[in-house]
Amino acid sequence: MSGYIGGILILSGCFMYGLSYSQRLKIRITILKDMVRMLSVMNNHIGYSLIDMTQIFERLGDFDMCSYVRDFTGYIYEALNKSDIDTFALIWNEAADKAFAGILSKRQLEIIKEAGSISTFIDKDSQLKHIQSVVCELNEELDVVKNNAAGKMKAYIVTGISAGLILVIVLI
Questions:
Q1: Is the alpha carbon torsion for 102, 57, 34, 118 positive or negative?
Q2: How does pLDDT run across 108-127, given as a tens digit for each residue?
Q3: CA separation for the pair 67, 165 (Å, rounded)
Q4: pLDDT at 32 over 80
Q5: 100-104 contacts at long range (C-beta below 8 A, 24 or more positions apart)
Q6: What is the spatial distance between Cα 37 and Cα 22, in angstroms, rounded to a whole number?
Q7: What's the rounded Cα separation, in Å, for the pair 170 and 43?
Q8: pLDDT band at residue 89 under the 50/70/90 scheme
Q9: How far is 20 from 18, CA to CA, in rounded Å?
């Protein structure tokens, strides 16, 4: 009897492991969608409002975003309020590393970090074009992830169940 219970535990553990990988892909899609929304709102504020970055990130805290992007914008807001020395690019990159490391791929993280170099442009038009190009890159990356996600999610779950079954058969 204990062998069957152990087998069920192993099978369910492997299934949950596959499910967790599947959920990571889902979270990745949500993060990319919310980053596109956040950058679009930031683009609108830069283009049409006469407020500084600290106020933009304060207002971004009111938007409905996933917890990862909310943590990202919150860290930037806090760091902008605290620091006079750090550059915006440095604050942005640190926030991206803290919020998205281990969740997003290196390519996706590089695209997000690229948006932090907005402060290197002096005029508003260049800043707006830079944000728009990053939004386009994120949308392309989002399309790639969406197209591959369904198959990978199923594969992770099936692999988890298969590994669990193999372990159960071997151990029982």
A1: negative
A2: 999 999 988 887 667 888 88
A3: 35
A4: yes
A5: 100/31, 100/68, 100/72, 103/24, 103/27, 103/28, 103/31, 103/68, 104/28, 104/31, 104/32
A6: 23
A7: 57
A8: confident
A9: 5
